[in-house]
Specification:
Elements: H1 2-38, H2 43-65, H3 67-79, H4 90-100, H5 126-133, H6 135-157, H7 160-184, H8 195-201, H9 205-237, H10 243-264, H11 276-279, H12 284-293, H13 301-306, H14 310-321, H15 327-339, H16 347-352, H17 354-372, H18 375-388, H19 394-421, H20 423-446, H21 450-468, H22 471-479, H23 485-514, H24 519-536, H25 545-549
């Protein structure tokens, strides 16, 4: 009897354990399924990322990388010298010799029409002429500053997806206008044009240049908007644990666009006297495609929750996660929205409210140093810089393309680093190295050692790409509550484009005055930013907002 009793008593716990195990087995798959289905890549998420980044971020990159090469043709064209042989830079003259049979060795061909040369710029006008020559790039960055600052307001009237659509329209209009200038004002005459031909060509000069500036302004506006609207949309559709990785695709596709723009700009493709307008407009095809493909994407579930449309938000999440197990994630979004202050926050109040102060200042500092480190002195002016330090003919093109390649490789590596090492180390360590590189650049530019300058430039780009490239777009999305995020990101992006404008205008001016020592200015900016961010930038990787705010 006792044996039977023992057997019975032993069987009861066994049954209990089995039931407990079975209960655990019921719960565990749901949790496991949530973690894997909701926190990983799906075909819908991949499609959304590709459509948004190709039609906005990639196009922005092309608009940054291409004009650096086309300046060889745009500068004399805008000065009123549109004929093939009217070039004053060694690289431009090399292209004219090879593709247009221009002869710069026979002085007898340098006739009174000025067909084979550009008149020298008087010494008292050189600084102003540098600014005029960079006018189309200045229009681009001013447009970017306005687009970045106004990006938040599109959310007040449109959805996330519709705001992206508007940014594509701006770029599409800019691309269409870019085609026209070279069609109505050009000189394709081989040989020496007579005075009547020159006068006829110059009739539409002012209209053509105005269209060029308007086109670049619209492209810049689109680029500035996309830095806000695209990055916020990518953050909204991303699983929480993947948010940093997904948002960095915005920077990755900018970098891909820069490289493709540089490659398309070589003289064997569109980098010629009579084709540069197509080289600066073809990227609009991606915006055109995006205007249609954007409607295949789900609306931001977070925006739908803000609009109290829970059912539509749930459907959007089901599409993005390709699963019906979305309630936990949806509840998390609803809780975050419920705890956020839903009142409108103005730009002025962002600066005066104590709890926003350091998140905003560090976001501004990150976006400002992204430009004040001097990165666009490379991508906007590297053709001139490489020529000045001794690169000749096609070597300049290979030098330019190498900057795009190293930028792409380092950015791809940063996709892993951002989540592996966190945000703070990838800002501080590269900033310290960049400061040292700037000092070395001053030295080796002054003593004219081209290969060392190129190596240092590539090292600078690599250090930029792993941290300063992607993190300024990620950081504001992590340190602000949802209700103020669009305003904060708009202010930060405006700071980036404003500093970009300063670099674009002042770099050629200072370079003409102090030569290679211009990089000391970037050195001072980097060291100042390092000190500020060392003391005031928290680590945000994997942390809740309450933990981040405790840092300040």
């Amino acid at each position: 009897m006792s044996k039977t009793s023992n057997r019975l008593s032993n069987s009861i716990p066994t049954t209990t354990i089995r039931i407990s195990t079975m209960h655990s087995a019921v719960v565990a798959p749901t949790t496991f399924q949530y973690v894997n289905n909701h926190q990983g890549w799906t075909s819908s998420l991949i499609w959304a990322v590709l459509v948004v980044t190709f039609s906005t971020s990639f196009v922005m990159g092309v608009n940054i990388g291409g004009p650096n090469i086309y300046n060889l043709f745009i500068v004399p064209w805008a000065r009123g010298y549109p004929f093939p042989c009217q070039k004053d830079e060694d690289v431009a003259q090399w292209v004219a010799r090879v593709w247009w049979d221009c002869d710069y060795t026979d002085v007898s061909l340098w006739n009174i029409t000025g067909y084979y040369y550009l008149p020298p710029v008087p010494a008292n006008r050189q600084i102003s002429q540098h600014v005029i020559d960079a006018a189309h790039t200045i229009c681009f960055v001013i447009g970017g500053a306005i687009g970045g600052l106004t990006g938040q307001y599109w959310y007040s009237y449109l959805t996330r997806r519709n705001a992206i659509f508007v940014s594509m329209i701006f770029q599409l209009l800019g691309s269409i206008l870019m085609i026209i200038p070279l069609l109505i004002y050009h000189g394709y005459t081989r040989g020496d044009p007579d005075r009547n031909t020159i006068n006829q060509v110059l009739e539409n000069k002012d209209i053509a240049i105005a269209l060029l500036y308007i086109s670049r302004f619209l492209s810049g506006w689109s680029a500035g908007m996309c830095c806000v609207v695209s990055s916020i949309y990518l953050a909204d559709i991303s699983p929480r644990i993947m948010r940093g990785k997904v948002v960095t695709f915005h920077q990755l596709f900018i970098v891909i666009g820069v490289l493709v723009g540089q490659i398309i700009g070589v003289p064997w493709l569109l980098g010629q006297h009579d084709k540069w307008n197509w080289g600066m407009s073809w990227a609009g095809l991606f915006s055109l495609a995006g205007c249609f493909l954007i409607w295949t994407l789900p609306e931001s579930p977070r925006w739908l929750v803000q609009e109290h449309e829970r059912n539509r938000a749930a459907e959007s999440l089901r599409i993005l996660r390709q699963s019906n197990y979305i309630e936990a994630e949806l509840d998390e979004i609803v809780r975050q929205e419920a705890t956020a202050v839903t009142q409108h926050v103005s730009i002025c109040s962002m600066f005066t409210t104590t709890r926003f102060r350091w998140p905003l200042l560090t976001s501004i500092a990150l976006n400002a140093i992204q430009q004040l480190c001097g990165i666009n002195s490379v991508f906007f002016y590297s053709s001139e810089t490489f020529s000045l330090i001794g690169f000749v003919e096609d070597k300049v093109y290979w030098g330019i393309i190498s900057t795009g390649l190293i930028n792409l490789v380092a950015t791809i590596v940063s996709e892993k680093f951002v989540e592996l090492f966190g945000r703070r180390p990838l800002i501080l360590y590269p900033l310290g190295i960049i400061t040292f590189i700037m000092i070395l650049l001053c030295v080796f530019i002054q003593i004219h050692i081209p290969i060392i300058v190129l190596i240092l430039t590539l090292m600078f780009i690599a250090m930029f790409a792993v941290g300063l490239g992607p993190i300024p777009y990620v950081y504001p999305n992590e340190v602000f509550t949802i209700d103020v995020r669009p305003t904060a990101l708009s202010i930060s992006v405006f700071a980036s484009w404003f500093c970009n404008t300063l670099v674009t205008i002042l770099f050629p001016v200072f370079r003409s005055i102090i030569n290679g020592y211009v990089f000391l200015i970037f050195c001072v900016c980097c060291s100042s930013a390092f000190v500020l961010l060392y003391y005031k930038m928290p680590e945000t990787k994997g942390k809740k907002l309450s933990e981040i705010e405790a840092f300040w």
